[in-house]
């Protein structure tokens, strides 16, 4: 039974921008990224919002340096660089920060082969971003994050299934699973491989649509990129691209396109 449920509801955690005039934001801050809280201003200066002009927030991402943003491949597929902009330097989707143009989109050559695998991508900013107190890069961890580690998830994902997208950045501490435990709890083991890290605390907490591409951080270093889950916070693991597994791809892709 678990296998059937998972196959139906496991999805990529992106906000759909197709044929919708503009994203409606929630200004009340009553609901949180499922089970989380409003992030303190400046507490995640590496966090960015991938914006579709005329629509708004679509995915999250992380500044790796003054020119490159790491995100999920499924946030980039079907778009041209001119279709997307990057919002930096603010926790609010309504005010502050700076919108930056993008001149290159790159994602893993084996994205979604098989399904949910190799879901990692890079965006090159047209001009280098200026760092400040609210705009900083994040270092990524080249070693695998430990099992049962407390890690931090941030994003502007919906606060419940089909719920609102919050105006303010949300933050939630979650716990990493072993891949074996993740496969058992998901019920579809083929969706998880060495390139994934999974998290789970309890029902009522987790990632949701709009968190895709965003950061999972351990002791101040980037360890995961939001990929997929069973929306939202329903007691199943959330799946992230394991940054340590892809760090050579990230390093060489940036170097070859600098």
Would you write up a description of this structure?
With 258 residues, the protein is mainly beta. It folds into 2 domains: 47-137 and 247-256, Beta Barrel (Thrombin, subunit H), CATH 2.40.10; 138-244, Thrombin, subunit H (Beta Barrel), CATH 2.40.10.10. It is 12% helix and 31% strand. The chain contains 3 helices and 16 strands. It has helices spanning 2-9, 179-186, 243-256, and strands spanning 11-12, 25-26, 37-38, 47-52, 56-63, 68-71, 85-88, 98-107, 121-125, 150-155, 165-166, 170-177, 196-199, 215-218, 221-229, 238-242. It has a 6-stranded antiparallel barrel. A hairpin with a 2-residue loop joins strand 14 and strand 15. The longest helix has 14 residues, at 243-256. The relative contact order is 0.23. Mean pLDDT is 89; it is low at 1-9 and 28-32.
